[in-house]
Amino acid sequence: MLTLGHQCIILEMKSTGKDEALKELADTIHASCRDVDPAMLLTVLQEREQVGSTGVGNGVAIPHAKVPGLDHPVLCFGRSSAGISFEAIDNRPVHLFVQILSPTGRPDEYLRSLARISRLLKKEANRRFLMQATDKEQILALFNSPQE
Known about the structure:
With 148 residues, this protein is an alpha/beta fold. It has one domain: 3-Layer(aba) Sandwich (Mannitol-specific EII, Chain A), CATH 3.40.930. The chain has helices at residues 18-32, 38-51, 107-122, 124-132, 136-144; strands at 4-10, 55-57, 60-61, 64-67, 74-84, 94-103. Strands 1, 2, 3, 4, 5 and 6 form a six-stranded mixed beta sheet that branches.
């Protein structure tokens, strides 16, 4: 099961641009998964963004990639009150970021993770809750609760 860890939550991102946001999320994941090279991770994420922006609209981006050497899926959450230009499909700034990293060779798990996070963030009440959450525990409770 895909879970979000306390150390992989950024309550207020410092980034102001797309590449900077991807790096901030990658660095946060590296702090808890030391075996993943942050430079390689950033490259994989940037390559994925070249295929098409993972800014899905409604102030949400779900950067995701399959990462060589990773042995389990990893989730990272970041929030930007100011919003970050991320070339989202609706051309609006992104406030909520959920980065999903999956091991290569496990496409079913990858797609299930992506679908679960997409369903969670599709609900306006969940997006509003995440924007108003005052601590990591509230965010953890939403992401780690059984869905639907």
